[in-house]
Write a structure and sequence with these properties.
The structure holds two protein chains of two kinds.
Chain A lengths: L9 H45 L8 H42 L5
Helix pairs in contact in A: 1-2
Chain B lengths: L2 H27 L4 H18 L16 H9 L7 H4 L5 H8 L1 H10 L8 H33 L11 H4 L3 H7 L6 H8 L1
Helix pairs in contact in B: 1-7, 2-5, 2-6, 7-9, 7-10
Classes of the chains: A mainly alpha, B mainly alpha.
């Protein structure tokens, strides 16, 4: 580790900060979206279970709700992939920002 | 230089950066030079001799209770460490060797020491050279990445171990460090 040699360009520092903030925001959005979809899925699955208890030989959810459950499951699978990518980006941009901020304090890491 | 070529250029720079970091680790882990090792051994022996002097306590009383036979029986019985009354602080083997045979101890210690090491000055100079080469490569990498970003309007991923001050530096400072002084285009004009 040695001292920072180059003076920081405030516009660049702001750019790295903005990028890290955005990445964190996107990540938070995906985790919130996942939580919401999980609630929807749980609710629809509970309803499906109730239908099956009332009519053991029946198909379960009515067609519209069954389609909705399928859609929610697909969305959840996609959202999980998005969340992994968002987490990776947030980690990367946070790490780079930490290096940049250390440089503004006269350090290099 | 096309974006494709610039990206290849960045990859080549990153390979050199890895090599230089490896070289820096190698230099940092090289052993000390022979003279430094020798002076460290001298200091160790001197310290050991000071801290554990041979002290035959039984000899200075009104009547000596110390005999060589007694001493030898203690050693033979492997009771050196509990024989303080008779042989004082001889219970420290390194101290004993440092007093009794410092030259032999030094020669034995030196015999197994590595050769081809560096003095502090040589190591500092070698590390300074690697660091200067490393900085030149890191500056060239950052300039190339900014050039790509200018063209694509996107973000090029930085190395996670990139220097923060280079990532945040003014264009002009990087160009100056790269020896250009004309901004990014001037640098690529030469690099192409």
């Amino acid at each position: 580790m040695s001292g920072a040699r180059f003076a920081p360009d405030p516009a660049r520092v702001a750019g790295y900060r903005r990028r890290a903030d955005n990445a964190r925001s996107v990540w938070r959005g995906t985790t919130e979206g996942i939580a919401e979809l999980r609630e929807q899925r749980a609710s629809l699955e509970r309803t499906d279970k109730q239908f099956r208890q009332l009519n053991p030989n029946g198909p379960g959810l009515p067609p519209a709700q069954a389609a909705q459950l399928g859609q929610v499951r697909d969305d959840l699978a996609r959202m999980n992939e998005d969340e992994a990518a968002a987490a990776s980006e947030a980690t990367y941009s946070g790490h780079v920002l930490a290096s940049v901020m250390a440089a503004t304090r006269g350090e290099t890491v | 230089m096309s974006i494709f070529e610039t990206r290849k250029h960045v990859e080549a720079i990153r390979s050199r950066i890895e090599e230089l970091k490896g070289e820096r680790s190698r230099v940092m882990s090289l052993p000390a030079d022979r003279a430094t090792i020798e002076s460290r051994i001298d200091a160790l022996i001197a310290e050991a001799a000071r801290s554990a002097p041979v002290f035959f306590e039984g000899l200075f009383g009104e009547r000596s209770t110390f005999t060589a036979q007694h001493f030898n029986s203690c050693v033979a019985g492997n009771r050196v460490f509990s024989a303080d009354v008779i042989i004082g602080r001889l219970g420290d083997p390194l101290g004993f060797l440092a007093v009794a045979m410092p030259e032999a101890l030094k020669a034995a210690a030196l015999a197994r020491m590595p050769t081809g090491g560096l003095t502090d000055e040589q190591r500092a100079a070698a590390i300074a050279k690697v660091n200067a080469d490393l900085e030149r490569e890191e500056v060239a990498e950052e300039i190339a990445l900014r050039e790509i970003e200018d063209i694509t309007g996107g973000h090029e991923r930085r190395r996670l171990d990139a220097r923060g001050d280079i990532l945040a530096a003014f264009d002009a400072d990087l160009a100056k460090a790269a020896g250009g002084g004309k901004g990014r285009r001037g640098f690529f004009g030469r690099a192409a």
